[in-house]
Amino acid sequence: MITPSKLQIGDCIGIVSTARKISKEELKPALQLLEKWGLQYVMGKTIGAEENQFAGHDDLRAEDFQKMMDDPKIKAIWCAKGGYGTVRILDKLDFSTLKKSPKWVIGYSDVTALHSHIHNLGIETLHAQILQNLENKSEETSASIKNILFGNPYKIDIESTAKLNRPGKAEGILVGGNLSLLYSLCGSNSALKTEGKILFIEDLDEYLYHVDRMMMNLKRNGMLQNLAGLIVGGMTDMHDSKIPFGKNAEEIVYDAVSEYNYPVCFNFPAGHIDDNRALILGRKIELDISKREITLSFKL
Question: Which of helix, strand or coil describes residue 199?
């Protein structure tokens, strides 16, 4: 996998929205943080654009992202908002410039569509907080992004006593993102190949039976069988039906992988939660899950 170049003081970030609409006003606090980091930024035409719930028409969102990929002055592309819409522009994009001159693509949730597609091109991406609401996340959230972008040493070491954790050590390339997006990409050229890799999943605002449906789909597609390990982040604001499903989201995930022997951890600090640590997708990692602690180390 190719690692994009680290940023330097004075480098320029391209800011776009590949999915839902967002105003320039909403981004002001996050932009102030970028300035504190010594970075410049250019806002794409999608910021402030509007077509129903989207940040402008599909063509506009594709053109905006394409311009940021092709502009050599732009050293990283940071998605401003998630929601839904990124998958609608994937097939409109030409990644040839990105393959020649890789740059960080930053975001999570709906941005998983880009992460997965770019992973299959052999380039690392940054699963991290979108610009919207960055200022309201934990200090660790923004610090983790800054450390990775500027090439500083970075690992995640947390206390964890989640009862469903399956202790063990694993090594492999980190892949994944939002469960709903991974599910929706199955069968396409953006789908992940997970054999021998460590899979990360998280999700938001889903019915429990749908979580089960998605996990069964990943399982039937062979995406769970030969993992090196599984990391489960925030499974946030889940819903049950009038007739209860009988398991919570974590139990559903655990049930789907119960027959396999690799290490598994839950409640990892990444996803739609206040403490949304950055993850380098495509990077080889070491995962150590004990009864009271989880350590995730990124290999250089």
Answer: strand
